[in-house]
Amino acid sequence: MSAPSPTRIAAGVPADCRTRLMELARAADFGTGTRLFNEGGHADRFWIVRSGTVALDVHVPGRRPAVIERLDAGELVGCSWLFKPYVWRLGADATTPVRAYEFDAPAVRLLMDADPRLGAAVGAWVADVLAHRLWAARVRLLDLYAPYGSGEGL
């Protein structure tokens, strides 16, 4: 059995901290094709997918956005809310109907400041997610644009 993905909240945040964080959640539903956010927009919220799939993409001048990763249940959508200047670095689309938990980023940042243990757990989880996404973006962009791809399939 493989280790749980670091992008899933259960893999990165202790149960008691997850419970406190989830107290700030509200339900959000998105239809297929809904744009959750655009690169360069204000990052004032984030989501944890309950069901469905969200595609993260990066703007490529003169082309359609390149899909970097697809996110499923339990995964974090949006990391830019944690880092000033709170601007989205990627874009996101619902590729299927999506049910999610939505979080108000300023409220979560206040909770993180008030509870250093929770703040450290959420911060470490988001850092793990970012490391995973950076690697996924690298591999995907090499596959799309490098003459020999990423070499991942070799």
Automatic annotation (TrEMBL):
Lineage: Bacteria, Bacillati, Actinomycetota, Actinomycetes, Kitasatosporales
Domain Cyclic nucleotide-binding as annotated: residue spans: 9-78
Gene3D superfamilies: Jelly Rolls
Provenance organism: Streptomyces xanthii
Source taxon at top rank: Bacteria
PROSITE patterns linked: CNMP_BINDING_3
Name of protein: Cyclic nucleotide-binding domain-containing protein
A Pfam family it matches: cNMP_binding
